Amino acid sequence: MASQEDATTPAADPPPGHVSDLQNPPSSGDYWIGAITVLMAIMFVFVCLRFYVKRSIKRAATLDDCKTGKDFDTGRLC
């Protein structure tokens, strides 16, 4: 079993001219959170528009509406 020191030690030296920062590595997590938030907001608008149009035309919810609502509620939209 690997020790904790093996888990935090790099396997090799960095390329010439590059300095590794193992204590504070670069992350693009903030950009992903922002992109996902914006896309979820846009998706929410389109789902609401879909429900509005379906309710105004058919005046009743169908099976696909219930499934879309359930998937939207659980976060499984694909």
From TrEMBL:
Keywords noted in UniProt: Membrane, Transmembrane, Transmembrane helix
Protein name per Swiss-Prot or TrEMBL: Uncharacterized protein
Residues that span the membrane, as ranges: 31-53
Biased composition (Low complexity): 1-11
Organism: Aspergillus sclerotialis
Ranges for region Disordered: 1-25
UniProt superkingdom: Eukaryota
